Write a sequence for this structure.
């Protein structure tokens, strides 16, 4: 069976002469959540941006259900079933909530767009009540909900989330993770970057550990959570700042 | 006396507003200060002139003047075609110069290029039409007396009316149409708009078309109420920039309000300073606004860089 | 033969005089990243200062100081420097494109002032009959122009040498550091605002010097010599020569001035005199074309530094 998303030895960066990712691979099946964790500057967000066409890929491939989407311009990915929710600037603050949702529906025929927006609003009454208000007035958690709702208007097969809980209070973060879990029950796949690694792995099926732009470890989320080395280095457990373990030793444990 | 200056200021302001709307959008969405935008006013005015002359060559003029105005249906048709021609010119400039530079260079290279393009456009008009002022029409018009001893020409009222209609039309476009909403979205965050499925390249073409359309109308109205000269647009560079920056780049109503302020300031200032210094007024307005409120009256500081 | 030689001398004087202004612009844009769209204004300040300081008395216009030529040059540098200091304090904290609009406006305002303030500038007629020391002491126009050329070569050479020393030294390194990464430079204790202001003032002083040498040579100063087209010419010289390279500044000045005068010569032979305005338009179209085509096919210019025209622009 073909994977929903297959990332093969991807080398990418903001400038062609300065790659941030070095031959990174990962894969994701439909109905699965995969979380990418790793220290700051590991290239986690860059990986997601490379999949969504926002950074230059110099080597490697990205396959969506077996189809090569590597050099596809970002605006063609939405109709292909890929939705991306960035970490910052995830909503159009100068647009109303209704307009934000209609931006998500830009590639759909008008009638279908209206129906999809209504369906998304039915799932999120908070949005339905405030359609006319500017997105600027929303709180961080509400903006994240709006951003995900906008992405869901097109009923994407693949949803890319860049640190969805960044800056959220613990309760809002927990609510958001519940929303993310709900996404996959409908059959979509979610690839997510999270600082909040432990909580993210708990709702995930797979995990990938990146460091310095390279694959360091991967495996079922539960296995990564239980792995003492990973725990020490990347999940902020006991030896979080321990001198004895380095990211390199962690690499052996995952594979 | 002061009322007359205010009336004249509002008229100048309407023309500046029409020209500044496009400049303001392009500063926000194309992200560079386009010094060649004002030349689109000149080209719009001369396109209309050429079409008007062509029409008269073809045969009997189509009807006489409309009501109290100095012009008839032909100039209305020439205006419509001039908008199309100016938009085509703008898209050609985008394709030939600005889009090619944008891919590999930064905003300032685009500004240099706009210097060069401005020089080219202005002097091509000078080359073809010569330096002397031209009028669409020399028919006499009777001024209308308004209360307070203010005199305005019917053409001036027409200009004001069309400007208001254009602003209302643009407002509806920006808030109701998909293309308009996409334009506002790209103005705020082009990456997010792209990943949401919006083709930003198409939006940029819209910006050029709207900017060129407004510029063509502004140039035509300047030609109707003042005169046509090859330096028509060049003389409006600072007023247009002042209006766009005053209002806050990217804001429709900002550009309109900015244009009115510039028009009023220019016309009221001549009551206290010698007329020769009038062209410096927009510049002083630019300096003042950049000091007091750099984002302009309606501008937001923006969450993005 | 003599005719060709005297023309060459005449040509070189003006090309080098413009080259000094390009050198100043190169310091501002090429090395510091300051977009000065008001070059003509600073050249005008220098030109008028020189004319007022060295010119003969002429009621009711300010003047009659009849100071030595060199004092005129130094005065021109001083006033354009003071002008740049005031302008810089008011505008240098603006973003690039706003700085371009503001300096463009300043040049327009300066030109308007000289056009309208007749007591200072002689108004639209300008100031005429300015002394040229080469003409006072030498006979024959070729000898006079050769002497003036020698002086210009000396001054341009000194300016070039000084600029090379400056940008190669610690001050120049600081400039580059600020241009590449302002925050990092500031964290090293450099004051970016101050250094930028210094570069802006110094560059504008060279523009003032250029304006003064121009006026001293042609013996006349008038407001129509400082229209914005001058700014575009100087910019085209810099872009074509190669921004960030002091040799490129002079190379660009010579090449662009050769194209300008050469095309003017050809057009004057082909176009009847009553179409004079149109022939000027052809020259300006050429300048515009050179600028656009250079940016499209050779953005580094003939001998530019690196791809700096674009790199430090705001993205």
């Amino acid at each position: 069976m073909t994977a929903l998303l297959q990332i093969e030895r991807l080398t990418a960066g903001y400038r062609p002469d300065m790659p941030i990712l070095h031959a990174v691979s990962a894969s994701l099946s439909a109905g699965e959540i995969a979380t990418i964790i790793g220290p700051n500057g590991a290239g986690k967000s860059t990986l997601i941006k490379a999949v969504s066409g926002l950074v230059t890929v110099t080597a490697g491939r990205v396959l969506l259900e077996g189809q090569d989407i590597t050099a596809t311009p970002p605006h063609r990915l939405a109709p292909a079933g890929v939705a991306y929710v960035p970490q910052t600037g995830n909503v159009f603050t100068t647009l109303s909530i209704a307009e934000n949702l209609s931006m998500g529906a830009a590639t759909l025929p008008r009638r279908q767009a209206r129906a999809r927006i209504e369906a998304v609003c039915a799932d999120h009454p908070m949005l339905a009540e405030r359609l006319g208000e500017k997105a600027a007035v929303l709180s961080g958690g509400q903006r994240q909900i709006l951003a995900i709702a906008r992405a869901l208007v097109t009923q994407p097969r693949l949803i890319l989330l860049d640190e969805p809980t960044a800056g959220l209070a613990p309760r809002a973060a927990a609510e958001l993770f519940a929303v993310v879990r709900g996404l996959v029950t409908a059959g979509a796949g979610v690839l997510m970057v999270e600082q909040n690694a432990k909580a993210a792995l708990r709702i995930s099926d797979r995990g990938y550990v990146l460091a310095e732009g390279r694959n360091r470890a991967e495996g079922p989320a539960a296995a990564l959570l239980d792995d003492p080395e990973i725990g020490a280095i990347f999940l902020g457990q006991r030896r979080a700042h321990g001198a004895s373990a380095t990211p390199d030793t962690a690499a052996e444990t995952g594979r | 006396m002061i009322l007359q200056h205010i009336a004249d200021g509002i008229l100048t302001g309407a023309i500046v507003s029409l020209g500044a709307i496009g400049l303001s959008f392009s500063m926000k969405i194309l992200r560079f200060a386009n010094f060649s935008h004002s030349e689109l006013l000149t080209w719009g005015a001369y396109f209309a002139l050429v079409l008007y002359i062509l029409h008269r060559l073809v045969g009997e003029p189509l009807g006489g003047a409309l009501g109290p105005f100095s012009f008839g249906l032909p100039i209305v048709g020439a205006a419509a075609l001039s908008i199309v021609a100016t938009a085509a010119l703008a898209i050609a400039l985008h394709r030939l110069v600005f889009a090619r530079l944008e891919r590999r260079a930064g905003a300032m290279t685009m500004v240099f290029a706009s210097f060069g393009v401005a020089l080219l456009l202005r002097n091509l008009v000078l080359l073809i039409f010569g330096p002397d002022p031209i009028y669409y029409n020399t028919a006499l018009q009777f001024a209308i007396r308004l209360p307070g001893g203010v005199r305005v020409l019917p053409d001036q009222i027409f200009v004001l009316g069309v400007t208001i209609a254009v602003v209302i039309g643009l407002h509806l476009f920006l808030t109701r149409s998909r293309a308009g909403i996409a334009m506002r979205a790209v103005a705020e965050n082009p990456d997010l708009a792209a990943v949401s499925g919006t083709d930003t390249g198409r939006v940029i073409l819209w910006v050029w078309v709207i900017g060129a359309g407004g510029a063509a109308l502004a140039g035509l109205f300047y030609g109707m109420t003042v005169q046509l000269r090859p330096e028509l647009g060049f003389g409006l560079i600072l007023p247009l920039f002042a209006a766009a920056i005053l209002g806050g780049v990217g804001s429709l109503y900002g550009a309109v309000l900015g244009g009115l302020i510039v028009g009023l300031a220019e016309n009221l200032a001549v009551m206290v300073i010698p007329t020769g210094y009038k062209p410096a007024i927009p510049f002083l307005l630019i300096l003042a606004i950049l000091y007091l409120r750099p984002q302009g009256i309606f501008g937001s500081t923006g969450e993005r860089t | 033969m003599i005719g060709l030689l005297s023309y060459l001398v005449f040509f070189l004087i003006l090309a080098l005089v413009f080259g000094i202004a390009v050198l100043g612009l190169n310091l501002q844009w090429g090395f510091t990243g300051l977009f000065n769209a008001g070059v003509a204004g600073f050249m005008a300040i220098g030109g008028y200062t020189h004319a007022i300081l060295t010119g003969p008395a002429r009621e009711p216009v300010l003047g009659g100081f009849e100071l030595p030529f060199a004092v005129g040059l130094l005065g021109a540098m001083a006033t354009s420097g003071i002008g740049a200091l005031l302008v810089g304090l008011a505008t240098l904290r603006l973003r690039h494109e706003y700085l371009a609009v503001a300096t463009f406006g300043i040049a327009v305002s300066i030109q308007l002032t000289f056009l309208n303030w007749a007591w200072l500038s002689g108004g639209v007629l300008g100031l005429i009959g300015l002394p040229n020391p080469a003409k006072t002491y030498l006979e024959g126009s070729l000898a006079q122009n050769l002497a003036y050329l020698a002086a210009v070569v000396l001054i341009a050479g000194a300016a070039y040498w000084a600029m090379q020393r400056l940008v190669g030294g610690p001050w120049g390194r600081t400039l580059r550091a600020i241009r590449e990464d302002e925050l990092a430079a500031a964290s090293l204790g450099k004051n970016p605002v101050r250094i930028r202001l210094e570069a802006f003032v110094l560059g504008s002083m060279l523009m003032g010097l250029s304006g003064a040498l121009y006026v001293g040579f042609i013996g006349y100063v008038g407001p129509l010599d400082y229209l914005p087209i001058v700014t575009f010419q100087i910019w085209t010289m810099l872009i074509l020569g190669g921004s960030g390279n002091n040799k490129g500044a002079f190379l660009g000045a010579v090449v662009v001035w050769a194209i300008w005068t050469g095309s003017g010569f050809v057009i004057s032979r082909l176009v009847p005199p009553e179409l004079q305005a149109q022939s000027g338009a052809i020259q300006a179209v050429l300048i515009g074309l050179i600028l656009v085509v250079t940016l499209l096919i050779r953005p580094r210019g003939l001998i530019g530094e690196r791809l700096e025209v674009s790199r430090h622009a705001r993205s």
Chain B touches chain C at residues 27, 32-33, 35, 97, 100-101, 104-109, 111-113, 115-120, 122-124, 126-127, 130-131, 234, 237-238, 241, 245, 274, 276-277, 279-280, 282-283, 286-287, 290, 294 (CB under 8 Å). The mean pLDDT of chain B is 87. The longest helix of chain B spans residues 73-104. The radius of gyration of chain B is 19 Å.
